[in-house]
Amino acid sequence: MSSSFARQIIRDALRVRDQELVWIHTWDHSLDLAQEILQQAHLHGASVVLSMVSESSAIHLLKKAPLEAVTTPSSHLFSGVSRANALVVLDGPENPGIFRTVDKGKALAITSSLTRLLGTAFSKRVRTLHVRTTAFTEQAAKTYGISHAKWLQESNRCLTMNQAATLDLGHRIEALLRKHHEIHLSSSEGTDLRFRTRGSPLIDDGIIDQSDVQSKNVLTQLPAGTLSIPVDESSAEGTVVFTWPRAFLSDTIDKLRLDFKKGAITDLRAQRGEKTFERALREGSKLSDRLTRLVFGINSQASTQLGQPLDVLIPGTITLGLGDNTAIGGRVQSNFSYEHTLNDAIVSIGPTAVIMDGKLTL
Question: What pLDDT digit, counting tens, does each position of 11-56 carry?
């Protein structure tokens, strides 16, 4: 990653201005990019605070520190971020395999800190950019059985999305979601799920401009290209079956089936990773077992050749999220956050089928 990417983050995505405070939060493996971003922020007249998590310190916490030391959030970090004008979060760790043999409660606490950080920034209307590509490392690809070269190639292609086409698609879905709140999913694999959305849709086109700030749409990520909306956490009824795999806590959750009643999971099964998922869900706080967010892929450059977690960007897919949804304006606070992409469902918003045979019909 180069200075041009850092310039895109500061100048184009976050629109950093003179005298603003920019907070950069990074893992040690992405420190070079963090320093490039810092320099670009300085060129725009901003002040910068840099905070870092090292992989060695994370390993120490996971293996030797008491659970309380891991689950207690850093008040200094959260307090500082809430006073910033813009936040850049570089994702990690470099090697997710560090979560493989440790207590899942501790692992969940480490990974959920990102969700809490994004939720804090959203509530304080801090313009926030989550850089997902820094987590696409060789070690991560090896852990999850993904081609690293293909991962980066597809990620770079998504960074070149046609913004006008993405926004047009997002606005068409948004118009329906503002009129209708009832969602129905069905598939030949066994999905038959109904739920209600609540709140306002948020379109992520990779840029936070003044109109976004005024509408409280202050979170973006790279690569971008999604429309998200909170789900009424008591509304999910039925079954969803995910046929695509999902990386989670150094494991892979595959062929996951979830049954819901009154919003809560009543049964779960998976061909792979069931124990990892079940243990993390059990370690989660209140409402971790609730369906809380719905995401439509709208990136004009994304395709079915993408590997997880980039599949969330593909037009014709939807992604369902469990647990915390404060980062998109929802009301559920939890130390658990999980999302999984559904690629084969018929998706209806009210009376209108918007996805059929893996393609948007709008």
Answer: 999 999 999 999 999 999 999 999 999 999 999 999 999 999 898 9
The stretch 312-336 carries a mean pLDDT of 92
d(CA 191, CA 99): 31
Which whole-number Å values give the CA distances from 171 to 111, 158, 177, 291, in the listed order? Answer: 32, 19, 10, 24
| Residues 280 and 135 occupy one common structural domain | no
Helical residues (DSSP H) of the chain, grouped into ranges = 3-7, 31-43, 55-63, 67-71, 75-82, 104-123, 138-144, 148-158, 163-179, 210-214, 274-283
Model pTM score:
0.91
Per-residue pLDDT of 264-276, as tens digits, reads 999 999 999 999 8
DSSP letter string, 89-144: EE---S-GGGGSSS-HHHHHHHHHHHHHHHHHHHHTT-EEEEE-GGG--HHHHHHH
For residues 174 and 299, state if they share a domain.
yes
